[in-house]
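Batch job 17 of 40 flagged for manual review because the log was empty.
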Amino acid sequence: MVEAPEPIDSYPSPAYPLRSAVSEDPSLLSSVPSTWTHVREIMGLVSLSAVLASGCSDKPAAGPSTPAVAPATPDGGSAADSAASADASMVAPIFAHGEGRGAIGCIVMSPPVFLSEDEAMQFVIEELAIAGIDITRKNVAWPEIRIKRRLLEWNVVDGDLHDRIVEVDVDPVPLSMDGVDEQRKVAFEFVSERDYRDLGGPSCMSSVQDYDMRGTASNLARCLREGGTGGHRVGVFYDPVVSAVMSGADRLPDEPWKTYHQRMTAPARAEAKDLLRRQVADFVDWLRQQGAL
């Protein structure tokens, strides 16, 4: 005999802020996936939600942050070809520390913890300074390097699902190198969640966005080898992307969502920084082997 289902009297709190939490703190809407910022309809809904959540509060609702644009990749040119060939050995290999993979969307159970662009840049600059590399210029335009946007497409072939990455040559923008030491001719770029798409990270028209930071870093390094570095030795680093375990059930009574999120993501953030430190250390060793230090 099949027993009748028992009613559920209670259930654990979800691992995302409820409407009441957003109403109390509209700034929770200030952080949205970078891919959303390119979809006008979604950003309109987010902005409207922020306005509705703020209600009659005298504090303005915080809107979504606007990602910095730092695209790039070689667009060819006979004059640049010889320089690119000469500079190919000036680009360091990608030092693999951390998978650099993560996904955000409706079915993601273990959210990835991304290092912010500013946080990672400052961290890399400090680590390089220990080795005597003085990054005195930031966000330096390299107009000879341009990155084509890439799209992830899915196709069904003989009943099997296959994916492929397609390059789209749409409004390429000169690369803005994150940091440069002009005296030693050393430069670096960090692939973050914020500039992922602009640096060639594949995007897809789906409710779930997958991030392949390491693969995107490899693609950027290829572009630099082909486009030339102007005599600079370049290192490309990437966000290791460590996932956090957040069930919501371990949230303390009356603990604000911001505090809960910071507490639960702290271990993953510390691990990500350690992995990034290893990337920088390998780059410094490579520079020494190159005779640059």
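Reviewer: the log was empty due to a logging misconfiguration, but the result itself is present. The radius of gyration is 22 Å. Unflagging and moving on to job 18.
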